[in-house]
Every structure is written in structure tokens, then in C-alpha cells.
Design goal:
heterodimer; A: alpha+beta; two-stranded antiparallel sheet; 2 strands; B: OB fold (Dihydrolipoamide Acetyltransferase, E2P); Rossmann fold; 4 domains; 5-stranded parallel β-sheet; 45% helix
Chain lengths: 67, 426
Amino acid sequence: MADKTFEQALVELESLVKELENGEIDLNEAVKKYNEGMKLSKYCHDLLKDAEGVIVKMMKDDEEVDF
Amino acid sequence: MDEKKYLTVAALTKYIKYKFDNDAHLKNVLLKGEISNFKHHSRGHFYFTLKDESAQISAIMFASNASRIKFVPSDGMTVLVEGDISVFESRGSYQIYVNKMSEEGLGDLYLAYEQLKKKLSSEGLFDESHKIRIPRFPSTIAVLTSPTGAAVHDIINIVNRRYPLAKIIVYPTLVQGENAKDSIVKQLRLANKQKLADVIILGRGGGSIEDLWPFNEEKVAYEIYNSKIPIISSVGHEVDFTISDFVADLRAPTPSGAAEIAVPDQLDLLSYLEQLKNQSKISLKRLLETKKETLKNLESSFVFRDPLRLTENKSQQLDHLIEKLELLNPLNRLNQSKLALNVEIKKLNDYYQRYLLRKHNDFTFLVNKLELLNPLSIMSKGYSVAKQNGKVIKGIEDVAINDKIEILLHNGTLDAIITNKRKDEK
């Protein structure tokens, strides 16, 4: 999971929730998906909480330099 | 040692003001110019700039005069004013104090703007169908603006506060003056070539219509239109609409607004995550309840209360199936086919018999007919055939008196001589 972007993890989480809501799912599968969803949610949460701030660069002569 | 006399700024300014106020040429000046930077102050005064191609002058019209004019002045309008020139001491600037103002017609820049807007609109540059969707979670944002302006800092602050996962690349861009349009075009091309960003914010803070003009340039409009990366345009203030705003995939009222549109807010995201978690919990709980309910229903089913009924039912079903199976037994089907075949064979036999009988009857009829025609059978009834030299005699002229002839009877031949000929009387 560690290499997932916020967007990838969130989109995955959204589709898990949709599957769970649909209800046409085996109970075992549902519990598995629920646990997976909780992990994804925590991962997204941590990404935001641990973010150290936006990286700002400037394009100078085709190269990124500190702004 | 010289004692230099130093003037105070106030004293100098007072002197300059005195010079202005006592110059007859600066009283009741009639002036024509285009309005820009128009501001209608809450106390009713108008503050604006009057300008033409090469110069500009600050202008003020106090509420007492301003309330008398019949039109709503706005940027780009060319107006005729009457007023006095004087100095505003606390700012050290001269300005025209307008007493009267009338409209002369729309300014050239405004006309140019309207014409270009019409042209580009008809070419489809503003079409909604061409607009690219702004990504939900941009990872890199290209900011095309002046690296020293307030706009870039506003954008950085807001992105940082809302979505610190993003990265910003500032593409230093001239956003006013003669070279601005080329700079904007160049940086848009570079950002598209490098493809580092998934959204572009193009813009600048507020300014006069001239300051914002690069964003009304045709080549800038085409470059925005051709960008493969979605562009959020944010030029000037809420009230300023530029051509760039219309061509861009999205228009934001200000650069800060653009940053807010470009990225989601982490607070919203955190509560959204919370909501997703809750939905999962509720869904799982509901699923469990449904399964429990199903189990309860099953347990209370007659199958468990009265298991015999299950077998009864089943045995009835079995009977039914056996019946069905019987029908489907291949032997049965073979027998059925045999029966059908027999019927066909019998049919064929009957037909053949009838055919034989008919043919037999036909044959007997023909044999009888043939019998009747047999000369021998006629002669047996007493008829005879007369011949001379093997040739049948058909009439009396075939023979002469004393000719020798043969008479054929059914059991032998008589030789005879013609003694007389008598022709039948008719």
C-alpha cells in the first residue's frame, strides 16, 4: 500500500464501500473488504496528517530550482 | 561654512500646490480620456484614471458632482470631463478634480476586446465541449504568473493549507506589459512540453484594464485553447473578465480562488474519509443483519419444524420425475418409431395391392380385346379367308373366271376354281 498515491487509495476505498453497500456479497468477502477499507482509510488519513507541506519549485532554464 | 536651508516636504508640496492652483491653464480644463481603474467609493466619490495612448492622470469626482451624472462610468469608457488640476498633498500627486463628465463612446480597448471575444466565440474557442476536466487530486500544479507578485504567494499558501500533498512548480511569467503575451505563450508551451503538471493555474492579481490586457491577446487565447493540460484562469478581481477566462477550462475569480478550485480541502477529505468509514460499518452491519434474518427464516422453515414434509414433497417430486423419465426412455421412443413405421409399411402395401389389381384388370380387358381381333378365332365361327398366290382376295375384281384359289378354314385349306362372279346389288 505504501506506494499508492492518495488518489489511488481513495478511489479504491470508494469502490470497496460501493461493493459493501450493494449487499450482493458473501459475508466472508464483506469482512475482508471491510478490513481492507479500514486500512485504506487510515492510509489516506495518515498521508494527509503526515504531509510536511507543499513542495514549491521554480522552473528556471528547464530545471526545477527552489522557489 | 555654508548653512544649507532644508525645506520640509510639506512646505515644498504646499509651494507646488500653490503653483498649480494659480495657473489659469489648469483651471476649468476640458479633457478627453479613457476611464480605467474606476472605483465607486462607498461615500459616493468616484476615483479613476483618465488615459490615452501615451499618458495618464489620476482623477477624482466628489459625490456632490458624481451624483449628478446620468450614466454609470466604467473602465474602457471614453469620457469628456471638465475640472481643475491640483495637488493632493498627502500623496504628493497631482490630479484632476472633475466637476462635469459626459460619455463620449466606448474606448478602443473595450471595442477591441468585444470584437476579439465575438471572433473567438464563433471559432469555437469557448465551447464547453472542448474543456478538459480539472483532476480531482492534482499531484503537481503549474503556476504561470509573476514569481514576485502577491498572486503566487496566495496560491502557495492556499494549496499548502488545503492539500499539502501537492507539488507546485512556478513558471516565471511576465503578466503585464508589451512582452507579457509572448512570455505567457512561451511558458504555456513549456509546461505542455514538460508534462510535469496535471493542472495549470494561469493568472495575476488585480490591475487596470491595460495591466490585464495580455490576457485579452489573441495568441494567448489560442495557446490556452491548445493546451493539453487543463487550465484554470484567474485574472484580476471578481469583476474582471478576460478572454483567457472564457477560453480556459475553468475560470476562477482570483488567484486564491484558482488555488481553491485546483485542490481539495484536507478538512473536507478527512470528513469524507470518516463518512466512508461509517458507510462501510453500516453496510457491514446491515449485511450481517440480513444474513442473520435469513438464517432465522431458514431455521423457522417447515423443513426444520416438519422434516417429513420435506421427504413427502420430495417423493412426490420423484414420482413426477419418473413419469417424465418414462416418457423419455429410448426404448419407448423406439417402439413409438416402430409403430409409425408399421403404419407406413401397411399404407404402402395397400397401395401396391390396389395398383396390382388395377393393372391386372387392365390386362384382362386387353387380352379379351385381342382375342376378339384374332382371325383364327373368327374363322372358328365359320368364317374363311380366300387367297390367290398367297394374297388375300378382297374383292371380285381381284380374280378371273377359271382362276385357281385357296380357301383357308380354321382346320385346313380348300383348293378351288372360280366358276362364276356375281356382284352384289346395292
